[in-house]
């Protein structure tokens, strides 16, 4: 007799608890970006889109238009630039629109596709930089033959296929790219079972943490190798320059000139491209590693912080605009190509400014006239 009422009360309590649990807000659903922060992020992202698309396009054009530039490392750098172009042109504009009008334009399928493409582009860029780093390691540390252009093309295809395989499961049911209110993009949803959590951690390890650890190890070995080579060459006895003449069969032989060995050129040649790759690695680590760690930690604790997640994502986007700036500073071929694409009128104005700047101090001309006058008087 008393089983019915007790059961009813228990069911009511359970129902209330379930409703309370369902109405508990996820952190990302409550937080909202302030308007000032939205405007700042929007301006920043517009600059990133412009610089990322234009600057990285120049890199691809250099490799495409100049057959002599299609070396292995340049092909891999072009693939890295291509991932930045696609990330800037495909994934950033929707994120910018969702920053202000997310409720009107967000849909389930496009949101999942943009999340899939974003993960694919970022992961492909990471694996491409890993291939470049291993190539530098083999050349400088192991002193082995460098990659050929054919090998670089194969590595490019493999990196794309591997990242697609690793980022595709959420689209076919193993996990899910989910949109949470107040977010600016779909992200990997809170795990529903242990398999989804294992997949997320495995994916982040294989396409983020393991490559970064491998690249860091290779750079430490390269720096140590260059340092030891520099010390060994510096401690070698220097050869003084002198000329000796040999006599063979009563005839004068050819003069033998001994000079000091120029070791700086060799070390600089080996480390010139390494410096650029090292800076690219540092930028990649600083921009995308915090976002990956936030993604994993937020999924484990079961909540996404809107402000933190958006800011870390925008920091990752900035990497697409920083890379062309690095190319411009450290790669002379890139600077020359940029000069070719500058409009003619702008180039003329630059030349005129440089010319007038060089003629501001007429000391050299004055001295030349003084010398001519002295000679004329004589």
Report the radius of gyration as a whole number of Å.
Answer: 30 Å
User: Could you say which overall geometry the principal axes of the C-alpha atoms support?
Assistant: globular
CATH domain class: Mainly Alpha
Mean pLDDT across all residues, rounded?
A: 76
- Uncertain spans: 1-9, 12-30, 239-267, 348-378
Biggest sheet architecture: 2 strands, antiparallel
Name the helix and strand elements from N-terminus to C-terminus, one letter apiece.
Answer: HHHHHHEEHEEEEHHHHH
The first-to-last residue Cα distance is: 136 Å
Give the % helix: over 70%
Task: Give the helix/strand class.
Answer: mainly alpha
Assess the beta-strand content as a share of residues: under 5%
Reading side by side through the largest sheet, how are the strands ordered?
Answer: 1-2
């Amino acid at each position: 007799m008393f089983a019915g009422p007790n059961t009813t009360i228990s069911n009511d309590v359970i129902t209330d608890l379930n409703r309370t649990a369902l109405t508990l807000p996820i952190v990302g659903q409550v937080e909202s970006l302030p308007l000032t922060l939205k405007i700042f992020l929007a301006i920043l992202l517009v600059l990133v889109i412009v610089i990322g698309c234009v600057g990285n396009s120049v890199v691809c054009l250099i490799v495409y238009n100049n057959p002599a530039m299609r070396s292995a490392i340049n092909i891999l750098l072009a693939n890295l630039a291509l991932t930045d172009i696609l990330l800037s042109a495909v994934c950033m504009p929707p994120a910018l629109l969702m920053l202000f009008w997310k409720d009107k334009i967000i849909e389930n399928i496009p949101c999942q596709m943009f999340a899939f493409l974003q993960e694919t582009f970022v992961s492909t860029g990471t694996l491409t930089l890993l291939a470049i780093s291993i190539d530098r390691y083999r050349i400088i540390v192991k002193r082995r033959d460098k990659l050929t252009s054919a090998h670089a093309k194969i590595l490019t295809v493999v990196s794309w296929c591997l990242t697609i395989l690793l980022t595709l499961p959420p689209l076919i049911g193993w996990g899910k790219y989910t949109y949470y209110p107040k977010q600016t993009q779909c992200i990997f949803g809170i795990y529903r079972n242990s398999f989804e959590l294992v997949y997320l951690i495995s994916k982040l390890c294989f396409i983020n943490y393991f490559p970064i650890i491998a690249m860091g190890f290779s750079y430490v070995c390269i720096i140590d190798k260059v340092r030891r080579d520099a010390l060994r060459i510096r401690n070698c006895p220097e050869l003084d320059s002198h000329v000796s003449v040999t006599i063979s069969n009563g005839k004068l032989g050819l003069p033998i000139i001994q000079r000091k060995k120029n070791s700086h050129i060799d070390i600089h040649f080996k480390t010139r491209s390494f410096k650029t790759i090292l800076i690219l690695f540092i930028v990649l680590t600083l921009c995308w590693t915090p976002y990956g760690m936030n993604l994993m930690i937020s999924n484990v604790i079961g909540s996404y912080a809107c402000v933190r997640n958006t800011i870390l994502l925008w920091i990752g986007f900035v990497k697409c605009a920083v890379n062309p700036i690095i190319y411009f500073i450290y790669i002379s071929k890139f600077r020359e190509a940029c000069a070719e694409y500058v409009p003619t009128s702008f180039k003329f104005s630059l030349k005129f400014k440089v010319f007038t700047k060089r003629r501001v101090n007429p000391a050299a001309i004055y001295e030349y006239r003084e010398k001519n006058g002295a000679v004329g008087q004589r």
